């Protein structure tokens, strides 16, 4: 009775073949589920003892990608015991190709995302750099999923070579027509990885100056001192000389002042020491030199050089203002007069 039932044929397969298929499927799924729990439990315990995030990434890859592939492998092996029509066999084969292409693409995208996130965290704190990297991540997604689609269609029997050749010719034409856009795109990657400036930096480019507001795939936007927004293409930025004042560790300040020609020599000799004492008494400054520089048209010119720590422009102006007040005060005490433009006119009386 039982052998007869087992040997009974249904849809080109015996009942026994269906039982074997079911046994392999259920047994394989149970084994995978058990191994998954055991392996993931051990991997998580191991990950807790490490500081790096690479192990967490690998655990996530194992759970999301390796396990689904193992389930499909069990189903494929179980289906091999059945005598199927060409259409179901093709469906199973196409499903396998799709799953492999999907999981490989997902793995590549996840790896790129993990690498970019790790790079962003180690090189730049805050969300500005992460926003800038989104464009690069979007490009990676487009390329990876495009290659996955080509791989899938090629395995389905489509003539991808002729399509790719056509796209290649069209791509060359598009590239020639969009050279400026591609130039700005490559410049965007240069800015993102070389980091000549960051969002919030005060820069000077040619006759434009201001604070970097944000930079995108094609343009960089600068908030100028006048309040308007300046939009500069990325290629223009990378081709220009950019002065980044935010990264200035200290500011070199040079200024000159003039006193009258009637100033006595002994007071002229005191002036460098007076200025040096004033600057040395102000915090966050480093005195360099003060010299009698030259004989001007209407004044005796002194040149002063000092350094201000940091790049804050307002702080520099406050210090310069304080120095000017102190110099004026000290000169008043010693009756040293500042020079101002004067002309002396000599008149000769001509006798007739």
Could you characterize the architecture of this molecule?
The protein has 352 residues and is α+β, with helices and mostly antiparallel strands. The chain is 59% helix and 17% strand. Strands 6-5-4-3-7 form a five-stranded antiparallel beta sheet. A three-stranded antiparallel beta sheet has the order 8-10-9. A two-stranded antiparallel ribbon has the order 1-2. The longest helix is centred in the N-terminal third of the chain and has 38 residues. The mean pLDDT is 79.
Q: How many separate domains make up the residues?
A: 3
* DSSP summary: helix tally: 10
Structural class: alpha+beta
Radius of gyration (Å): 39 Å
Query: How many DSSP-defined strands?
Result: 10
Q: State the helical fraction.
A: 55-70%
What ranges have pLDDT less than 50 throughout 5 or more consecutive residues?
A: none
User: Which term fits the overall shape?
Assistant: elongated
How far apart lie the N and C ends? 159 Å
* Strand adjacency order, main sheet: 6-5-4-3-7
Mean pLDDT: 79
Please tag this protein with its features:
Alpha-Beta Plaits, SH3 type barrels, alpha+beta, three-stranded antiparallel sheet, 10 strands, 3 domains, five-stranded antiparallel sheet
């Amino acid at each position: 009775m039982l052998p007869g039932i087992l040997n009974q044929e249904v849809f080109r397969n015996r009942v026994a073949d269906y039982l074997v298929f079911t046994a392999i499927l259920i047994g394989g799924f149970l084994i995978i589920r058990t191994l998954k729990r055991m392996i993931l439990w051990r991997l998580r315990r191991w990950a807790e003892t490490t500081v790096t995030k690479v192990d967490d990434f690998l655990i996530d890859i194992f759970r999301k990608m390796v396990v689904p592939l193992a389930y499909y492998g069990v189903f494929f092996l179980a289906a091999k015991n059945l005598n199927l029509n060409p259409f179901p066999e093709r469906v199973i084969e196409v499903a396998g190709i799709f799953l492999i292409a999907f999981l490989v693409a997902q793995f590549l995208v996840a790896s790129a995302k993990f690498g970019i996130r790790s790079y962003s965290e180690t090189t730049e704190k805050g969300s500005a750099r992460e926003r800038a990297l989104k464009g690069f991540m979007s490009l990676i997604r487009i390329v990876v999923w495009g290659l996955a689609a080509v791989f899938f269609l090629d395995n389905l029997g489509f003539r991808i070579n002729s399509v790719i050749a056509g796209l290649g010719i069209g791509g060359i034409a598009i590239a020639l027509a969009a050279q400026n856009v591609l130039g700005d795109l490559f410049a965007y990657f240069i800015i993102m990885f070389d980091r000549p400036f960051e969002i919030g930096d005060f820069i000077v480019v040619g006759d434009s100056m201001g604070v970097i507001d944000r930079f995108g795939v094609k343009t960089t936007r600068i908030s100028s001192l006048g309040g308007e927004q300046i939009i500069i293409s990325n290629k223009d930025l990378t081709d220009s000389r950019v002065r980044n004042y935010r990264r200035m560790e200290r500011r070199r300040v040079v200024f000159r002042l003039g006193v009258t020609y009637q100033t006595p020599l002994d007071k002229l000799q005191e002036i460098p020491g007076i200025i040096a004492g004033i600057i040395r008494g102000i915090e966050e400054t480093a005195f360099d030199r003060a010299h009698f520089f030259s004989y001007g048209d209407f004044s005796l010119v002194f040149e002063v050089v000092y350094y201000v720590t940091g790049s804050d422009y307002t702080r520099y102006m406050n210090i310069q203002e304080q120095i000017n007040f102190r110099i004026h005060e000290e000169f008043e005490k010693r009756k040293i007069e500042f020079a101002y433009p004067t002309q002396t006119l000599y008149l000769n009386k001509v006798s007739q």
